[in-house]
Amino acid sequence: MKTASKKPPTLPRTVAATVRLRIESGGERVWRMADFNGMPFTAVAQALSRLARKAVLQRLGKGMYYRPRQTAFGPSKPNLSHVRALPILRNRVYPAGLAAANMLGFTTQNPSRVELATDGQSLPRLIVGKETVIHTRRPESWRLLTETDAALLDFMRNRGESSELSPEQTVDKLVEYLRESGRFERFFKAVASEPPRVRAMLGAVGQQLGKQKHKLTELRKGLNPLSRFDFGMLAALEYADQWQAKERRNRETI
Asked: DSSP code of 143?
């Protein structure tokens, strides 16, 4: 009588082999140490470092790696539109400059270089690109804002100068954005950490929208009554002069 042959026992995979298998089957994505919970930390770190040396992964920063896919133009990079959603980033990322103005419809120009803002001190260059212009140290209060809010606040910081519209059209569009439910209130909470000129601009917008007097009074606090602020394009706001805006010059004569 034949006895059933026993299969040889399956040997446990090493940590390095397990890490590599997960990464190779996971496709294009970002990997962190936290993705390997339950496995020896040192062994995982060594495995990830080894895979980076072999160009299987790209190291983005401490404990952060990116698994690219091959394209006709070389290894891929993370899509910039996904940057804000990456769990590896401790800091928020916001549109800035011409990119913010384009997103809001103030211009049809596309920036030659991507421009981003963050409330941190830096962003991983391998994610955002080596040529990206990064504005750092945005106030923590920006975390209260939506992406559109942040783009608008950046636009106001830049005095609306990236707008292709006339000053009057620029102001009308800005006011309509701030007329949307809840937006002025979010700005009111966030602008305490903004430069005085931005608080003055928001006050002028708020007065044009007929916002409560106590909010306008709060915005006026801390503004030096002897100061005059450069509102740029936003000097076309109806009550700009009452909020200490410098006299606007015609852009065509500058």
From this structure: G
